[in-house]
Amino acid sequence: MAGSPDQTGAGRSASSAEVRRRLLEVAAHMVREQGAPALSARKLAAATGTSTMAVYTHFGGMPGLVRAMVAEGFSRLFARVAAVPITEDPLLDLRNAAAAYRAHARADPDLYAVMFGSATLGDYRLHYEDRIVGLDAFVQIKQFMERGMAAGVLQEADPAAVAAQWWTALHGFVMLELTRFIDVVDDAEDTVLWPLMDHLLSSLMVTPEPPRKDV
Amino acid sequence: MAGSPDQTGAGRSASSAEVRRRLLEVAAHMVREQGAPALSARKLAAATGTSTMAVYTHFGGMPGLVRAMVAEGFSRLFARVAAVPITEDPLLDLRNAAAAYRAHARADPDLYAVMFGSATLGDYRLHYEDRIVGLDAFVQIKQFMERGMAAGVLQEADPAAVAAQWWTALHGFVMLELTRFIDVVDDAEDTVLWPLMDHLLSSLMVTPEPPRKDV
DNA sequence: TCCCATCCATAACACCGTTATGATCGGACC
DNA sequence: GGTCCGATCATAACGGTGTTATGGATGGGA
Predict the structure, then answer these.
(1) Among A26, A116, B25, B40, which residue is least crowded by beta carbons within 10 Å?
(2) How many Cβ atoms are within 10 Å of A210's Cβ, its own excluded?
(3) The pLDDT of residue A68 is above 70
(4) Rounded mean pLDDT of A131-138?
(5) Cα distance from B2 to chain A (closest Cα, Å)?
(6) Is residue A49 located within the same domain as residue A131?
(7) Are B162 and B204 in contact (CB under 8 A)?
(8) Contacts of A181 in chain B (CB under 8 A)
(9) Domain that residue B50 falls in
């Protein structure tokens, strides 16, 4: 509770912000390379070249550091989905968005698990408030749906509900993929993920099409 | 590694099996009531009225105890899905199976998270081999699909792939529901879960129907 | 120049899973 | 019946964890 040390001229602010940035960077690296349980305050401090107290001055403790990691994870997920080019085909955009979302999760699976799982990192349980920061990405999906409806491709409906259906299917696949449960079927990407997304989208279209073949 | 102490006349076998049973029962209760991070060998032993060594003689350590909990969780999930009555309407059966599956997850959310999340319980990471025991439930879903195809209601397709699509959508909803992410939309059960399942099933039907209204 | 808030290094505390040791007890065998 | 043996678990110690208390160093504001 050191009173939110932002960069407003507090102490040696430049070097301090640098320590904070490096702590987050090293922590993310440790989680990505060695898995969530490998992250500890002591090992993190040693790898960053500081002491455990730095974690407390900058984040108030390990849960605070994890919160910051999750927030940055959502920020990157947001950026990744936002980077898909918007074409004249809203359905293609939605497919590309799904591919980008999945790629992001596969690139950093342990962080995705902490973001979305009821996963605990170490012993610190994240609460709903700690994850709500991730809903920017959901707003993006909603906008994809709104574009599709405005273009007359998707049926008029509640964009939030439709976006949530899309998210549910995609998140379900990603989680089963990361936990390897999806390995019960062969070639899951082509036999589960894209057929499922196609089933959903064609049900939402004004004039349903047979599932496309081009990936 | 005490050589699998089954009930074949080993020591005071009756009392021993009883201790093992109570350890599992108390551990499940602690996870259900206080969440996964609240489970520790010491508190579990104290609550069970024994010492931490009992965990090692019966399960080889905390990871082994968690494995046993996960196996029992899958067993109960299997029983829950198996208990849905089989009617002459395969689609109704699939809907009832989904409702039973979701109800099971909601009744013991932390255990579901350990079973399916890349969630860690304490610091012990479960491996794929520890969770493979849960695939009995998947076989059941596959059989539902096979019945639907045999009855001429569902299109002929790979039952495993179709079952995996169904599972993906359902698991995605359950996870988003347990983590409360689904709260971004109102009335998620009626605006997300059932519409999504209906979209999927109608895409799989020989003669698609409009989504049903009866819940 | 002085001062003071900030930052972090050190050490201690309580807790964790795990291991080593040994007492205890029930069943098997002679 | 006496004896032994092996499984079971109570106790204590070890290295790890997050966290807290303490104090020294450092750099900017008055």
Answers:
(1) B25
(2) 7
(3) yes
(4) 78
(5) 27
(6) no
(7) yes
(8) 116, 131, 134-135
(9) 13-60
